[in-house]
Q: What sequence folds into this?
């Protein structure tokens, strides 16, 4: 079964607004990570939240994790045009060592000036 | 953060040829590297996990004879697409795990492969 389904698939907002993206998954996880990808580029790691954490902040980013609902959200506050990118959640469900990440389909965010 | 490079960034080849993509961890040693494939407007799909000094572990549906992986050193893994065909055209991304940062994978910039 596929992990990490994001919604919405696409989100279009104006600069200054907040952007919220959601991710749902199906099995137990060790941690959940959010990545950003600019068009045709590699991935940039944004934030990692462990299964025993409920909320984490990093600059304008706020991530929540609800393991009972198997869902996570990424909030970008005061968005900027430079935030335009695709955002992916990835779940790590392994038990030890380096576990494989399973990526969701992503949310394409467009921030207009 | 840790830096991972890929070479080449873009390659165009004729059908039937083989293409080698390199993935290097520049400032750390990576005992484990991962290879992903991404089709346009789609997510990353894990192809294989590459362990230094041992055989790669391929995901279901990925042909190991088609996608040869060699992880010869702690800083270099290579993916060779053998006898490439147009359907192999894709964006190939590698990542490397840094033992200093448990379970965080650092991603390379990707390689765009176009098979004519």
A:
């Amino acid at each position: 079964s596929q992990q990490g389904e994001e919604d919405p698939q696409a989100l279009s907002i104006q600069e200054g607004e907040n952007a919220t993206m959601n991710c749902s998954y199906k099995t137990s996880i060790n941690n959940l990570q959010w990545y950003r990808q600019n068009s045709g580029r590699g991935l940039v790691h944004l934030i990692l939240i462990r299964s025993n954490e409920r909320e984490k902040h990093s600059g304008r980013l706020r991530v929540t994790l609800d393991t009972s609902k198997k869902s996570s959200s990424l909030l970008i506050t005061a968005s900027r045009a430079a935030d335009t990118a695709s955002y992916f959640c990835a779940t790590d469900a392994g038990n030890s060592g380096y576990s494989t990440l399973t990526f969701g389909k992503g949310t394409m965010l467009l921030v207009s000036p | 953060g840790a830096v991972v490079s890929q070479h080449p960034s873009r390659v165009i080849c004729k059908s039937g040829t083989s293409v080698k993509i390199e993935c290097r961890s520049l400032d750390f040693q990576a005992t484990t590297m991962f290879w992903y494939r991404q089709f346009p407007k789609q997510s990353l799909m894990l192809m294989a996990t590459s362990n230094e000094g041992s055989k790669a572990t391929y995901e279901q549906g990925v042909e190991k004879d088609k996608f040869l992986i060699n992880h010869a050193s702690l800083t270099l893994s290579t993916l060779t697409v053998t006898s490439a065909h147009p359907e192999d055209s894709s964006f190939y991304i590698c990542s490397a795990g840094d033992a200093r940062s448990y379970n965080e994978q650092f991603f390379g910039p990707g390689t765009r492969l176009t098979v004519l």
